[in-house]
Amino acid sequence: METIKYILSLFIIAMLLTGCKNEIKPEIKTVKVEITKEVDPNVTFAKAEFTVEGMTCAIGCAASIEKRITKMEGVKYAKVDFDRKLAMVEYNKAKVNHTLLEKTVTSITDTYKVTDMKTVDTFSTK
């Protein structure tokens, strides 16, 4: 009988310690991605900027979009600015186009929407 009381007491204490958390704190992770690619000097590159709607965080959303675009064949550079909701991509015009960029972003999750896609000479810095 004493053993049952002891086990029951330990169980109740364990439940109180693990089950009574009123506040859930998100886990914060910092991810730095650097991908280096060989660049053919005879390739013609273009730069595109577009808005990405539906992102909820810089580490999960913006970083995953940036990583996915960077892995595309023909992409030289990609940066997604969460605060500005802006993606900036430099790509090989023979391998990548605006439609392919949009499909890549929207295929990650259906909450991401691409708007205002445009070709630019230089990336905006604001």
List the helices and strands and how they pair.
Blueprint: H1 2-19, E1 45-53, H2 58-70, E2 75-81, E3 86-92, H3 98-106, E4 113-120
Q: What's the end-to-end separation, in Å? A: 72 Å
CATH topology call of the domain at 45-120: Alpha-Beta Plaits
Alpha carbon gyration radius: 23 Å
Largest sheet: 4 strands, antiparallel
> Helix count?
3
- The name of the CATH architecture of the domain at 45-120 is 2-Layer Sandwich
Integer average pLDDT: 84
H-E string = HEHEEHE
Low-confidence stretches: none
- DSSP strand (E) fraction? 15-25%
Physical arrangement of strands within the biggest beta sheet? 2-3-1-4
Q: What is the CATH level 1 assignment of the domain at 45-120?
A: Alpha Beta
Overall strand count: 4
| Secondary-structure content class | alpha+beta
Can you describe this structure in just a few lines?
This protein has 126 residues and is an alpha+beta fold. It has 3 helices and 4 strands, in the order αβαββαβ.
